[in-house]
Structure formats: C-alpha cells, structure tokens
Structures
1.
Amino acid sequence: MQGRPLHSSIFVFTEKATVVSYCPKRNKNVLVMSTMHTEASLSTREDMKPQMILDYNSTKGGADNLDKVTATYSCQRKTARWSLVIFYNTVDVSAYNAYVLWTEINQQ
C-alpha cells in the first residue's frame, strides 16, 4: 500500500474468481473478490473505481437490511455452543425469508 498511486487498481485472476485491490485514499486499501466478474473493467468516473466495487455497492442493501432486521427481531440467545449459534442464525434468516415471500405474495 505504501507509495501506491491514488485510485489505482490491481487485479488478480483465477479460473473461478477475480480479486481487485483498489486504493481510494492514501495508505488505504479495499479488497473485493468476485466469482461473477472475469475482466478488469474500470469506471469512467474521476475516481476510476473498478466495476466490481460499483456492482457490490449497488446491490449491498439486501445484506444490510437482513442484518438490521435480524438484529432487531432475533431468537438468538447467549450460548457457548457453536452449533446453537448456527441454528439460531438459520432460524432468523429463514423467518426473514418467509416474511419477504409473504409480503411479495400478499401485496396490497
């Protein structure tokens, strides 16, 4: 990160995934991995953001909303057993998915 030009991107490709390292500020680094993107495309904006980051930012609302709702309405309890933590999270996500489906089916 030291000495990297501002708004520079470094791409790494494998058969199944692409990783980009983007430098938005001095001495800061943003890493994004994608299995959907297969080429090094940059935006034409002034900050030259990679298309992977723009796609992520435009679709991240679903995960943020899930985290917000499951934090407010959760069945989780304090436990030291990791299997119960996974079970509680599965119940929370399943309940939210059922709510989303129900609201789509019963639109007014």
2.
Amino acid sequence: MPEADFQRIQREFAAHIRDPARQPAPADVAPRRMATYRELFFNNIENFIATGFPVLQSILAGERWTALVEDFYARHRCQTPLFVEIAQEFLAYLGAERGPRPDDPPFMPELAHYEWVELALAVAEAEVPPLAPEFETNPLAHTLRLSELAWPLAYGYPVHLIGPDHQPTEPPARPTCLVVYRDAEDAVRFTEVNPATYRLLTLLEENGPTPAVDCLTRLAEELRHPDPAAVLAFGAEILRDLGRRGVVGTVDA
C-alpha cells in the first residue's frame, strides 16, 4: 500500500526530531516550529536520563553529556512506552549499542548500572521481608530469605565513591562488593560488604530460602575455613546486622 502523505510527514517528522544532523526536516513544517518541537522532545528525554543518572551527568557535564544523550536519542529504539523505564533503556544502550569510546570514562558502564539499581529499587513493587521475633536472639535458628529489595552487587570500580572529584582511571586490585537495598522506611541505601558477606547473600539469591546454619556451613566449605564454628559465630553477627537493615528476612516470621 502506498504511503499516505500524512504518514510520510509523520515519518520525516520523527526522524528529524531524533537525529536532526542527519535527517532533513519535513518540507512543509516551518523551521521555527520544528525547532520548538525538537527542543521540547529532547529536553524531556534528557531530563528523565539526568534524573536517573545524576552522578554520571555531573561528570560529563556540558557538551559530553549532551552528545551522549543525543546519540542515545538518535540510535536507540525503546521497547517500553513508560517514562519510568527510560533509565533501563539508557542502560541497555550503553551496554549493547554504544560500545567503548575514547572519551568515555572507563567506569561509565558500571557507574550507570549502580545508579540505575538505585532507581529500580526506589520504584520496585515489593516489601521488606519480616523477621521472626526471636531472630535477634538466635539468627542461626531460622530459615533465611533475601529481600526482593536487596541486590548484592560486585563491581570492578568503587562506584559508590565516584564523582566529579574522584574519577579512577584503573580498577583497584580487588572488586567492590555492595548490597543496595530499600529499607522499611522506603529509603534506598547501600552498604559495602566483604567478599564473604557478598557470597553469603548470593547463596541466598541463588538458592532461595535456606536454613542459616546450612548457608553458613556452605560458605565455610567454599572458603576452606579451618574453623567452621568460627564462621557460624561471625556469621550470626553479620545476619543480625543484615536483618536490622531489612536485607534478609525469615520465612517463619
């Protein structure tokens, strides 16, 4: 079926809005009006992305930031009509479409992921899991589950420390292990954890609800710790702290 005039105008209009440097404007739309549309559409998208990635924006402030958003706007085809998911679309663009560029900070993909996690947890439809009343007294007597609002994460760069005044050019020798979570007051927080605690949380993430003793025993085996009882004792203190934060809950609450 031949393309109708209004369809051609819509296609040309959208193409120019997305990529004005490469796509000509429709011939029958006034240039001043076209410029107004272009500015309004772009500013809307830029505002959503800046809100989701404020640290990255502060680092790339100015022409570098504008060029990054313009490239996303021109190249990426969003798979969702929801404004709240534009940040996830931007993350997909960084990971699968943009590719490394000489002027990009080496930590940019990880920093963007970390900032997206904070936004994703802020809008997630889930609740902090409850704790059994006796949990504080004896954490090892319970079956644990990881909160749906707690994500254990490992990064090459210390993403939680990066900002305009701290931009590492090389990752440190050891990865940065974090748990980012939403607490009972609906505040998104993070805490840096050691590799053993990170592994404890990923065991719960991988296996689902698990008796605390079984989880810590598995951890001691993986660490080849000479004193498994010490791992249980130390693990009990770690679990108390994670329970207070809302990172873990119990299935018998």
3.
Amino acid sequence: MRLVIGGAFQGKKAYVAEKYQLPNEKMTDGSAASYEEIFDTPCLYHFHEWVKERLKEGKKLESLEEELIDKNPDIILISNELGYGVVPIDKFDREYRETTGRVCTRLAKKSKSVVRIICGMECVLKDE
C-alpha cells in the first residue's frame, strides 16, 4: 500500500500516473466509487471523498487499513489533506475531517511509502 497526500490541486494524481506508469483507466475516482471498489483498483484518487461517502452510508472505518492489506495490498491511495484551516461549524463536516485524518494516519503507518506533494514536487515522508 502507498499513500500520496497533499493539498487540493497540487499534482498528486499526475505524480502517481507518471511515477507508477498508471494510465487514467487504472485509476478510480473515490468520489464515485463504492465501498467494494477500493479492494479491486490499483489506484484510488479522491480518497477523502470516498471516506465522506462511506460516512454518509454510516460505515465504520476503524479496520480499513487491515482490510486493505488483506484484499488489496498494492493499492495507491491519493488523498487531500483536510486538517488545516478553519474547523467546520457543521458537525458532519467536523466528523468527516477528523475521520479522514485518523484513517490516513493509520494507513500511513501500514503503508510502504508515504509521499506529500507540494506544488507538484514530492516530499518523501516514508519509504521502505
């Protein structure tokens, strides 16, 4: 498992496509993906949106990293960082932001590599 994080519009998807030679058709949009699709795709971008949709469905994601390691250990996840800036007033938005951060933290611990993309450039946080 690999995790690529960064702010919105920083070039995360382009970085993954180039680095891992992944064509667009092998990359799944998390904003439109079902729960099950994460276990069958080489790459899921908009992971933060995938988390949001699962929360709307009432899913619990406490053991997602273990399920991913078991079912799709080579997945590349691309997620926006949401924990910066003003804390949302809306309760659901706060829960979404916190859950995404906590899930990404657990995924980072289990990932082979964690890369942060800033202005299209990689900053390697972890590489095993």
4.
Amino acid sequence: MDQAPGSPQQPPNSSGLPGCYRHPDRETGISCTRCERPICPECMVSASVGFQCPTCVREGSGTGHAPTANQPRTLAGGTIAADPRLVTKILIGINVAVFILVTVDDSLIRDLFLLGGTPPQYLPEGVAHGEWYRLFTSMFLHQEIWHIAFNMLGLWWLGAPLESALGRARYLALYLLSGLAGSALTYLIAAPTQPSLGASGAVFGLMGATAVLMRRLNYDMRPVLALLALNMLFTFTWSGIAWEAHVGGLIAGTVIAYGLVHAPRERRALVQWGTCGLVLLLTIVIVVVRTLQLT
C-alpha cells in the first residue's frame, strides 16, 4: 500500500541503500523530489526537476492543483506503460517460437543463421552475396536447448528492469541495435568461414546498459561488474562461442544506454535517437566495408 507523502523512508537494506517505498525488495539511491521517498526505476516519473513517485504525480494532476509533470515518464523520458515488461515478453516469445520452428524443420537454420559467404565451389549465399537479412534473423535463432535457455533467462532478468526504466521504444532500439552490432562485428572478423547464431549479442548489450543504468542511479556496481566479468570469462574460454557477437553487442549497448540515460532534458530526443542513429550508421558501414572486401 502506498505511504502518505512525507512518511519516513524504508529502512536500508544490507547494502546500506533504502528499498523502494512501493517495492521494498528493490534497493535504490533515488528519491522523489517532492516527498523524498525512495523510488526504483519502475516508479520513477520524470518531472521538471528530478524524478517523482507515482503517488505525487497523481496528487499533482488529479486534485485541482497544477501538475508538476505534464505526463508520466520513465527515467529516460519514455511513456509509462501499463505493462512495463511487454516488449521483453514479446521478444522471448519470438525467440521461443523460432526455436520451435527450427526444431521441427532444422533446414531453416541454414536459411537464417549468420553466414558471411561460402567458398566458390558452393552456391553463392550469405551476407556478402546480398542476404543482409541474416544479420537480423540470426539474432532470434537458437539450435541447442541450453543456448536458448541461458539467453532467455538473461533477457528476462536484464530486459524487464531496463524496459521499465527506459520505456518500450528506447528499450527495443537498444536490444535490436545491440544485436545487429554483434552480428556486424562477427561478420567483420569471422566471415566468411564461421557461421553464427543466437541472441547473445543483444543480451550482452542489455548487460552493458544495465551497468550504465546502475551507475546513473548510484547503485552498487559490484554485482553487475562481477556478472559481466564472469560472462566475459566464459566468452573467451569456452569453445564454440562467437566472442565477436558478445563484444560487439556489449559495446553498442553501453554506448546507446549512455546516450539514453544521460541525455540533457532540453535536447533529450535529439541526443537519444542521434546516439541510436550513429550506432546504426557505424554498423552499416562495417557491413558494407566487409562486403566489399569479400566480393
């Protein structure tokens, strides 16, 4: 139940940070600028100065007083959604649906995975021969049950909080551009001999974005840095892993997230979508340059 404005903050958790007044299990370093209660990313509403809690926003816009925020916004300026995890659920559903399809008909893998190009003795195929869609379709393609299980768990754990904090459109742009950047770096370095598939590039992008968001909110960085270090260790020690996709997605996700959460309020849209556009442009340049080299 919501507390009245001005009520005491929640007691601090083990890390010393208080828990969100609506979600006590979520530690946070951000407080509402009106009532000073601690609020987590899902409860942050962008106001003219700082962030407010949903209760203060409702009171400011529904009691006859002048609203302090014209429209509820997420930390990054996105619209507050009724289901702040909808895009994450849809992305998981698409990945699972594609996995079921290729399980039923494994010949689809040959048509969808990231393939730079085949030697001359085979029929021309791959990105270098005009099949650019493989850069995108490979992001939703998995062949082993353990592969999709790890990626979907990571997508849910990392994606749901990010979607709540960024808003649907910005979160979806982050996910797709991170995945494409991972595909592009794989194409640049590993093509044409190494095929690649999986959502790992996009998930690593979410991991980099999580680190940026936690830094922005003054959270304890040790858990996410430990998770990142562990995953990078697996990336470079396990055989059969396309490290290029992981690194490309991580770099893109970090850059995009920095632009999303640190954009100045007066030029927020320009900086945010400009950052996304620059990452996309660089991705396209990498693909075009590598294609020219291979052809």
